[in-house]
């Protein structure tokens, strides 16, 4: 009996050593699981072995590896009774001697079809945490002794260590690969602003790096809120056009900001298009949100054609990749907005330039340093210069106030003075011209004067019209003065003329008669002159000898024709 016990212990020890040895030399946890499920049936005298891993996102057990049972049995909807799974989650093994006959087991029919009789379910633990379950199955009724169960628990613990170490190594290896890939994609993103090219490369690199069948990238349409396909890799057009996916539960969860991993898309209730995914050959998927500044703008899904339990490193890589994609989308969209804005600015500048150049008056725009930044065509034509020659010119070359005059308009604005009229006089081709300059400020956000707009208006015609008005006023004064003087002269003139004519009737010496005749003739000439002055409508002025000028009195047309024009000398 003792010998049998020692022999059994040595057998168990030998099996444990073999499992420990094979798990220590295998670094890929998937290979570890595949190796264990193939080796244990022969070592433990059982017919089949399965390993399922805990999917922390759904708190369910998904298939990791299996040997000795059919795919139909492995694909059943319910793994075991909830009471059994609750025991396993608590860290206890569960033995079922006749699973094909127990009416309370939900997988009894599947076990009966598979020919399974006895099942020992063991928790796979690592550092006290449940990471999966291992099941030992037989096609004959068999019981497990306490020693066998203890040994199986120790074996399951070694499996947990092996899987965790394999995961750790694989995660480290994957993280290095992912880091290099992130660096490469980041360099790609920073090297171009071609959004379509970036997203296409992103989908391809994600699928290749994660050894997946394919990848899809969909973005939310800002106007309709519908997910639009932006890029894809490794999947068919029929799959991509299968219908709207916005209402799928997995999509809604991702749009809420959380990644979603699905082990079996053919049965998961978070998927709507099961048949289309089966036809496409998709088995598992990982969906992560595409974010920009914390806002979810899309969904990236990694699709595999083999069962996959996505590791934390894979989830983080996919999320980081999606974040890089979000950054690329933001940069590309900003670039597109800037281009559209520049085009609009160019159109606005052209429109504004057309308006400025269509102004009748000269226009200048100067910065706070008094340098010209813009001049319209009217100014350039008047100055006889090109825009290149004028832009950058200092204001002092364009306007200088004389002694006693107000400062130039731009100087008034920049010095904070109240705008006062400023008129400049120019002589061009021996012709005087007058220009009125006015200025208005343009303030920046802080209230400082950023630019000054100066309008230069040619007022030569107005100036000459005003001078003519003044001359006309003077003429009217002269005409009125001439009438008044004529009226005042006529009274004594007529009295003197009457007296002289009475004296001429008297008998006077011949000499006196001649002198009196001269007086009467001169008085009549003065009378003619006053009559012309009364009828005067204007006068003209022309140069005479030295500084003298002669005024030519202008009468109305009839009197001018009868009497001619009287010239009066003026010193």
UniProtKB/TrEMBL annotation:
Domain of life: Bacteria
Domain PAC: start-end pairs: 415-471
UniProt GO molecular function: phosphatase activity; phosphorelay sensor kinase activity
Span of domain PAS: 348-392
Reaction(s) the record says it catalyses: ATP + protein L-histidine = ADP + protein N-phospho-L-histidine
Keyword flag RNA-binding: no
EC number of the protein: 2.7.13.3
Protein name (record): histidine kinase
Organism: Desulfobulbus propionicus (strain ATCC 33891 / DSM 2032 / VKM B-1956 / 1pr3)
